[in-house]
């Protein structure tokens, strides 16, 4: 096994996660109907289902009807591939790696659901919280209180932001930070919140200037949190612990 192959497995995992994120909110099964174009309903061939590559080859459009395939499909697949490769380099088959697998899958599915429907399905958020909590019962590079305080403080901070933004931030984002706290610990959670806010603001600014802001003017915060949290989990948490001596 090497990091390159892990990247390929990660992209396939990300592709499955996108399917889950797009289908769960509609109550659809994971296997039926088979993957199809949302524009014309045509079932996709095997060579149209290769993560990242297929999207690049058809230049983001259905070959039959020309319907646009959102750029975030390959972006999420690429992100999951990168997460797998980086986690493998750092932990090989250790628990840190399996935590990255679970977190990247849940966060990829949540990002897809948020981008598509502007909501974070409870089933996905709680799968993330329960899965990460279960591993944290016995695998903790940081002291146990760091994860506990991070979870409570994260949900508290997001609840405050939700009130301050008058509901511009969803309840799903508040629950999501229970998972982020358990994943990254206290300083990692704060760093995730800062990075995600910067990314969310930049995305909002870009959407406003290009006139592509959603009708309800809500910026999907979920994908920004997903990218920031995985970045912090894979890199910054050990860095913060080592150089700042805080957790
Ligand atoms: Zn089509």
Fold and architecture overview:
Helix 7 crosses helix 8. By secondary structure, the protein is mainly α. The chain has eight helices and no strands. The chain is globular. The structure holds zinc ion (ZN). The site of zinc ion has 8 residues, from loops.
Features:
single chain; 247 residues; mainly alpha; binds zinc ion
What's the tally of helices? Answer: 8
Share in helix: 55-70%
Mass-distribution shape = globular
Beta content? under 5%
Mean pLDDT: 90
DSSP E strands, number: 0
Question: How are the SSEs ordered, and which strands pair?
Answer:
Layout: H1 3-23, H2 53-57, H3 72-91, H4 95-117, H5 122-136, H6 144-164, H7 171-209, H8 222-244
Helix pairs in contact: 1-3, 1-4, 3-4, 3-8, 4-5, 4-8, 5-7, 6-7, 7-8
The structure holds zinc ion (ZN).
